[in-house]
Design a protein that fits this description.
single chain; about 425 residues; alpha/beta; Rossmann fold; 3 domains; five-stranded parallel beta sheet; 18 helices; elongated
């Protein structure tokens, strides 16, 4: 159920916009541990994650005074992993490598925050976790292994009381065997997170989250392996695990309708046009902040020229045209917006010197396409189709005759007639 209030944040309706309120509440109040924030390339998923971890989590209200461990966001970025680290050809190896990388990241965070010493962990913490696990129907695999080892080596709770030092040393060897096995280690780290959440974040569970970002960089086979690790990990640890993904990644690799449900949260960021117009409005209203980049005499005319451009961008035709180019990608919008300011089609300073609006719609469209280069260089991944391309998979495509004429012109053929073997 979507909530429009939040008792953990002050002045929730006033401090956050509708998009932020929706995303914050979905993350905080979702009944599922695994949440996918789904959106296109460059729409702002990573930026929102930074904002949530660095700003929102620090403002969460606590029923009791927050501990020194609050908040605890753990951020795992696949950009740092490096291409080819997770092999697409070996499904099991992919899971093992990712599991180790994830556990390393979490272990480092637990070490930095100093939740417990090593002796405390393999001493009283083990006793507490084993007691809780003994009453559960679905027991933790790693804890079951630890319990068996304690029985075999006679290092149980009674022995811990009578011969603490020798028992701790033997338990340290057992721990090495646990963390030396990738599967046991993953389940063991999940059990530790659950224990830490209960002890340190019992009255404010929202202060502990794990964010996984840029999974889209990996091949589909690797994404499937990552999913097979994260789903049981999120369930066993009870930690909120947020994955930022594109639509294609979610529907191809993560959305399998299996028993462990993933909560899909569509990203609903700000319109790219609004962000670009906000930057233009900021320049017009505060030109002095940019004075060091321009001659003092030229700044007023430039402001006027940018204001004329802003008027063009506010029109409905531009909003629709700009949105078709960007696909709601803020990253792409900011890149294309630079074309509108600095390009080979018009000079905003010159436009600002005129009394009338001399900026044409066609000039704005052309500037958006070519930018500062006065020639148009087509490439396969470009935003604009090359209408004169002859060698295409579909030889019956549009403007075929123009392509043929283009080819003849390049060959400098004159007075040459062709049979109409292709019908338009």
């Amino acid at each position: 159920m979507l909530q429009y209030h939040n008792e953990h944040l002050d002045d929730f309706p006033g401090n956050y916009g509708p998009n932020e309120r929706y995303l914050i509440n979905k993350i905080l109040f979702s009944p599922y541990n695994l949440i996918c924030v789904v959106g296109g390339i460059g729409v702002g998923k990573t930026t929102f994650s930074y904002y949530f971890m660095d700003v929102v989590m620090k403002k969460l209200r606590h029923e009791l005074p927050p501990s020194s461990h609050c908040p605890c966001p753990i951020y795992f970025n696949f950009v740092d992993v490096g291409a080819g680290t997770l092999p697409a050809s070996d499904f099991e190896k992919t899971q093992v490598i990712f599991s180790e990388l994830l556990c390393d990241r979490i272990d480092h965070e637990m070490e930095v925050r100093n939740y417990m010493s090593r002796d405390e962990e393999i001493g009283q913490v083990w006793e507490d976790m084993l007691e809780e696990d003994s009453n559960k129907r679905d027991k933790n695999t790693a804890l079951s292994f630890i319990a068996a080892q304690l029985r075999t080596e006679n290092t149980g709770a009674g022995r811990l009381k009578t011969d603490y030092q020798a028992t701790i040393e033997k338990r340290a060897e057992i721990r090495k065997r646990v963390v030396g096995d990738p599967t046991y280690r993953r389940f063991y780290v999940a059990a530790l997170i659950k224990y830490i959440k209960t002890k340190y974040y019992g009255n404010h569970p929202h202060c502990f989250i794990i964010v996984v970002d840029n999974i889209d960089r990996e091949p589909t086979a690797v994404q499937h392996g990552i999913k097979m690790v994260l789903k049981p990990f999120a369930r066993i640890s009870t930690a909120k695990v947020i994955i930022n993904v594109r639509q294609s990644t979610y529907y191809q690799a993560l959305d399998d309708d299996a028993s462990e449900v993933i909560d899909e949260v569509p990203y609903c960021g700000v319109s790219p046009s609004d962000i670009v117009l906000s930057g233009i409005r900021n320049f017009i209203e505060n030109p002095d902040g940019h004075a060091r980049f321009y001659p003092k005499a030229a700044l007023p005319t430039l402001v006027k020229g940018v204001s004329i451009l802003g008027d063009q961008m506010k029109r409905d035709w531009f909003s629709a045209y700009f949105l078709s180019f960007t696909g709601r990608s803020v990253r792409k919008a900011l890149t294309l917006a630079q074309h509108l300011i600095d390009n080979s089609v018009y000079d905003l300073s010159e436009i600002g010197r005129t009394d009338s609006n001399s900026l044409k719609q066609s000039d704005v469209m052309r500037a958006l396409m070519v930018g500062a280069d006065n020639t148009f260089h087509w490439h396969e991944r470009g935003l604009i189709d090359n209408l004169f391309e002859v060698h295409q998979p579909n030889h019956n495509g549009y403007l075929v005759k123009l392509r043929i004429l283009r080819m003849l012109a390049l060959n400098r053929e004159e007075d040459m007639r062709c049979r109409p073997f292709i019908q338009s």
